[in-house]
Fold each of these.
Amino acid sequence: MADYAADIKKYTSNVNAAAVESIVKFCGIALKGKDSQWVSVTDPAEVKRVVDGFCAKKLGLDAKTAEAAVKAVGEKMKADKTKQRVTFYYLLAAKAGKGGTTALGECLKQYEALEQLISRMLDKAGVKSEFVKLVLTRMPLPTSLLA
């Protein structure tokens, strides 16, 4: 966590540790991959993935607003050739103005609680496949729940 916070501090003075932890948990295994731990703003497919994924599903942004936010964060981080995904998402959340990163941390905690509830329900229903559980618990939340 300290490495992520240190990277975020290059762009903002206040770092909400709970929000960083929530983003790390949200990203999960993507942070382990050699390429997936970074965001490439020059790759249109990657930008679309961020806009359609984190921005739309977690921040509740429409495509136009999300694209503008991604562009602004990309511009802010342009000196960094390797843009850490956690830092990028943290700055996106702050840029989105959804009550800042504190609100993001709270939103992701609620999302995690919902994931755990779904997982327990799947256990009770006898679903044994970890893959099915992962897919069902990682389904996007309706943006109305994020408001």
Amino acid sequence: MEEDKTIYELLDVEPIKKESLVPAVVVEDTAEQDSYEADFEEARRNLLYLIDTAKTALEDVHVIAKEKEGAKEYDSLNGLLRTVGDASGNLLKLHMERKKFKERIKKKEEMKNGIAVNNAVFVGSSSDFRKLRNPDD
């Protein structure tokens, strides 16, 4: 009878022996953090170099645009100004992303250590809460 067979017999495979099972090992992912820090530093250096180089070029293009007073020169000056502004904005975004990444790593660490507090509830009256918040009153 087909219904009385075990899953192993139906699939024609050998059952897994309990001795062959290996306990899971938790590996901390510091490589991701190290890689992110290295990438951050590289991107930061590149953006700072780009901004510094563009500032130097900006002075030169500004002098040329003043001398020639041509539309092409001022268009180049405008493009260079935009490049410096975009690079500066990208540098700020990079710092904000780094801060978010560090907060995420900190949260992971807190979760591992059992410190995470997502919701806190105060039990008491509003006057008790006020006294807790403003002990001088």
